[in-house]
């Protein structure tokens, strides 16, 4: 709790600092990175808001080099995939233009403990349309080789967003099929945290408080935290615990009725 995720008193803290120097050739973490990495290694779901250039990628790359298996990164940006592959040797990508032979090699490596890659970049279209890919991910999960899932540009999950993409709406299958794998949602900037985005990815208990840890860069704090909940029977909802929790948090709320 509190600032503990940003401390150095975890069982892996000394090894994490050593990896930072030996593998990434960095002397210290940037703001938020250590906390996110500690929560990742604690198998916690997270939603991270951090501007481009402040080190989001390290937050999931670190898990990939620290743990056995591989990290799955879902991103719509093929240019990001290409940049990462250029600078990181142990990465591969799967997108719509990937050849059948390349896709076959990558999918075979997902269940190989000695595979030459630690990070697999995929597009959301590949997740949505390839049953074979989901099948290989399931096998990797069963063999404890799928260690982490990162979803970049999570606003694409929200139908409220101008950037909404239908294929992102289907990514909730990753959490349902691989419930023991920690999930990291990534976003560049935010003025509103829309919990409906999180709902697409993570199954929450029936309350207004999110279960994942939400972190944002101190230079870009959100101005609004928003949760939208559709209710069929108004009087039943107003007597529920979901409504009563509003009295605990002294904030402003809008309730629309018809």
UniProtKB/TrEMBL annotation:
- Gene3D superfamilies (alphabetical): P-loop containing nucleotide triphosphate hydrolases (3.40.50.300)
Q: Any idea which UniProt keywords this protein has?
A: DNA-binding, Isomerase
Cellular component GO terms held in the UniProt record: chromosome; cytoplasm
Tell me a Gene Ontology molecular-function term this record carries: ATP binding
Top EC category? isomerase
Q: Which domain of life is it from?
A: Eukaryota
For the keyword Ion transport, the answer is no
User: SUPFAM superfamilies, alphabetically?
Assistant: P-loop containing nucleoside triphosphate hydrolases (SSF52540)
What Pfam families does the record point to?
DEAD
Q: Where is the Helicase ATP-binding domain?
A: 37-186
Q: Reaction(s) catalyzed by this protein?
A: Couples ATP hydrolysis with the unwinding of duplex DNA by translocating in the 3'-5' direction
For the biological process aspect of GO, one term held by this record is: double-strand break repair via homologous recombination
Could you confirm whether the keyword DNA-binding appears in this record? yes
The EC number of this protein is 5.6.2.4
Record family assignment: Belongs to the helicase family. RecQ subfamily.
The name this protein goes by in its record = DNA 3'-5' helicase
Q: Which organism is it from?
A: Acanthochromis polyacanthus (spiny chromis)
């Amino acid at each position: 709790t509190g600032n503990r995720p940003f401390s150095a008193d975890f069982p892996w803290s000394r090894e994490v600092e050593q990896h930072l120097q030996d593998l990434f050739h960095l002397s210290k973490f940037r703001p938020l990175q250590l906390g996110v990495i500690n929560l990742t290694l604690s198998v916690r779901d997270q939603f991270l808001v951090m501007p481009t250039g402040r080190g989001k990628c390290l937050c999931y790359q670190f898990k990939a080099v620290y743990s056995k298996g591989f990290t799955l990164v879902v991103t719509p940006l093929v240019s990001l995939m290409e940049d990462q592959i250029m600078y990181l040797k142990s990465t591969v990508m799967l997108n719509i233009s990937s050849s059948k032979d390349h896709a076959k090699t990558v999918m075979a490596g997902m269940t190989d403990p000695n595979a030459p890659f630690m990070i697999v970049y995929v597009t959301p279209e590949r997740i949505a349309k390839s049953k074979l890919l989901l099948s290989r991910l399931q096998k990797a999960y069963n063999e404890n080789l799928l260690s982490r899932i990162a979803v970049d540009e999570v606003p694409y999950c929200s139908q409220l967003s101008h950037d909404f993409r239908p294929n992102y709406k289907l990514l909730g299958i990753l959490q349902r099929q691989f419930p023991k794998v920690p999930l990291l949602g990534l976003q560049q900037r935010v003025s509103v945290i829309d919990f409906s985005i999180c709902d697409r990815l993570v199954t929450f208990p029936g309350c207004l408080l999110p279960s994942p840890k939400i972190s944002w860069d101190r230079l870009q704090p959100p101005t609004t935290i928003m949760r939208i909940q559709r209710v069929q029977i108004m009087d039943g909802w107003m007597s529920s615990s979901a409504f009563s929790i509003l009295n605990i948090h002294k904030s402003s709320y809008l309730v629309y009725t018809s």
